[in-house]
């Protein structure tokens, strides 16, 4: 514990001009006398700690002293700091903050960051992310109501394993006690979240994607082709930026995307319908029929009685 405190103090002194003994004592939950002894140890180890007297006095590192940047090899330190800073604001992760302070001592002098990541603007409750992270690290079960892809509402108890950020959304993967198997849940569909006090022991095997499972998934993927009018280009490209694209002289564009079971992909129907007259599905023909039926059902809601 003392060694960890000494290392943390060194990095704090490197990243701040002056820190008082009382501030350090509050930070590390020790007495000022202990801080004085720690400073002596740090000086004895060869670090140039300077003592400043007066009302705003304290301790700091000698001006111009920096640790060797070769410690991190070829890593882009500034980018690491940016990403870790974004994660630490979402999860309030003290360990990540400690890593940031260590990286800052070997960072560049660049004033304008070359990378910015903002996880806080995503459509996810940050409290749910933090509770799930706690459930993972402390092996505590979580309970929530969930809306599945069939629009069915169920209550689930899971043993959380890991958080995923993919497809612009957060997902939690864990052992579902309701289904007695591993499942993945999208956080935006979770409600009434509760982190319980019940702990669990991890199962012997956590499934990973196998080549056979991947092949079975690929066997059910089909191409969807649609024409996008000039007025809907930006929205379509925001959503399907990796699609095959072919532009035409009139400003329209043909997009081709591979979709898993497109005739059951409600997320795809919703997006295409949201573009209104800005998109026309060309293939498969069965999908055109589904969208026509969806439009007719919607129109019935607005018919005058």
Can I get a quick summary?
The protein has 305 residues and is an alpha+beta fold.
Show the helix and strand layout.
Blueprint: H1 2-15, H2 21-28, H3 32-44, E1 49-52, E2 58-61, H4 77-91, H5 94-104, H6 126-138, E3 140-147, E4 153-166, E5 169-176, E6 181-186, E7 190-199, H7 211-218, E8 221-228, H8 233-239, E9 244-247, E10 253-260, H9 266-274, E11 279-283, H10 285-300
Antiparallel strand pairs: 1-2, 3-4, 3-7, 4-5, 5-6, 8-10, 8-11, 9-10
Helix pairs in contact: 1-5, 2-3, 4-5
Could you explain how this protein is built, in words?
The protein has 305 residues and is of the alpha+beta class. Helix 1 packs across helix 5. The protein is built from 10 helices and 11 strands.
Percentage of residues in strands:
25-35%
Radius of gyration: 27 Å
Low-confidence stretches: 69-76
* Spatial separation of the terminal alpha carbons: 75 Å
Helix content percent band: 25-40%
Structural class: alpha+beta
Q: Report the mean per-residue pLDDT as an integer.
A: 79
What order do the strands of the largest sheet run in, or round the barrel if closed?
Answer: 6-5-4-3-7
Number of strands: 11
Number of helices, counting only DSSP H or I runs of 4 residues or more: 10
What form results from the Cα inertia axes?
elongated
Q: What's the helix-strand series?
A: HHHEEHHHEEEEEHEHEEHEH
- Biggest sheet, open or closed, and with what strands and sense? 5 strands, antiparallel
Keywords:
305 residues, alpha+beta, five-stranded antiparallel β-sheet, four-stranded antiparallel β-sheet, 10 helices
């Amino acid at each position: 514990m003392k060694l960890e405190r000494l290392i943390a103090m060194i990095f704090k002194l490197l990243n701040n001009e002056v820190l008082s003994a009382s501030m350090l004592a509050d930070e590390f939950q020790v007495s000022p006398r202990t801080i004085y002894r720690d400073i002596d140890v740090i000086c004895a180890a060869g670090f140039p700690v300077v003592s400043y007297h007066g009302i705003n006095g304290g301790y700091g590192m000698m001006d111009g002293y920096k640790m060797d940047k070769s410690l991190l090899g070829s890593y882009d330190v500034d980018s690491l700091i940016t990403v870790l800073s974004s994660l630490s604001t979402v999860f309030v992760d003290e360990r990540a903050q400690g890593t940031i302070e260590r990286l800052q001592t070997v960072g560049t002098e660049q004033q304008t960051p070359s990378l910015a990541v903002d996880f806080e603007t995503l459509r996810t409750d940050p409290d749910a992310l933090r509770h799930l992270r706690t459930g993972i690290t402390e092996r505590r079960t979580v309970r929530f109501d969930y809306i599945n892809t069939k629009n069915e509402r169920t209550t689930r108890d899971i043993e959380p394993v890991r958080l995923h950020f993919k497809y612009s959304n957060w997902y939690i993967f864990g052992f579902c006690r309701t289904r007695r198997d591993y499942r993945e849940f999208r956080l935006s569909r979770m409600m009434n979240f509760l982190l319980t006090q019940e702990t669990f022991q991890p199962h012997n095997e956590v499934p990973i994607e196998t080549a056979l499972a991947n092949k079975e998934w690929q066997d059910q993927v089909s191409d969807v082709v649609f024409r996008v009018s000039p007025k809907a280009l930006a929205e379509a490209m925001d959503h399907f930026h990796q699609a095959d694209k072919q532009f035409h002289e009139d400003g329209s564009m043909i997009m081709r995307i591979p979709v898993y079971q497109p005739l059951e992909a409600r997320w795809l129907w919703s997006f295409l319908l949201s573009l209104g007259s800005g998109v026309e599905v060309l293939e498969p023909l069965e999908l055109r029929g589904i969208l026509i039926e969806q439009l007719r059902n919607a129109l019935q809601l607005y018919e005058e009685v």
